[in-house]
Amino acid sequence: MLYGKEHVRRYQETNGAEGHDWNNTTVLLLTTKGRKSGKPYTTPLIYQRHGDDFVIVASKGGDPDHPQWYKNLQANPDVGVQVMGDRFKARARTAHEAEKPELWRLMTGTWPDYDNYQRKTDRPIPVVVLEPLR
């Protein structure tokens, strides 16, 4: 099973032929700029489409703290995205309260464990919208 750095490497080498379809869902690669280091960091994340946008969840498995990639995009919302062989720039934003319930349902429809992760933590798990800059 692909995970972490190996997942990123195989996805990049095969333009997503290996790594896009994962555990009955779909994965994109998100590249953020380190808020302290300034270095690029690439993370494989489950996603769904919502219109022209891409939706991801900052769950960290229900950990009490946000994932590093989410902290990075809060500091710099300009990110890189790869979906299969398509690489593009996007602007990331946390879903507004009014839109979050719909987007949460979209994401739990593809990865039901998000509900379990939310039950494990007092932290409201953010839903992130990636708006392509094309």
Automatic annotation (TrEMBL):
InterPro entries registered for this protein in UniProt: F420H2_quin_Rdtase, Split_barrel_FMN-bd
Entry similarity comment: Belongs to the F420H(2)-dependent quinone reductase family.
Gene3D superfamilies xref list: Electron Transport, Fmn-binding Protein, Chain A
Lineage: superkingdom: Bacteria
Reactions catalysed according to its record: oxidized coenzyme F420-(gamma-L-Glu)(n) + a quinol + H(+) = reduced coenzyme F420-(gamma-L-Glu)(n) + a quinone
Annotated protein name in UniProt: Nitroreductase family deazaflavin-dependent oxidoreductase
NCBIfam families associated with the record: hi_GC_TIGR00026
SUPFAM superfamilies: FMN-binding split barrel
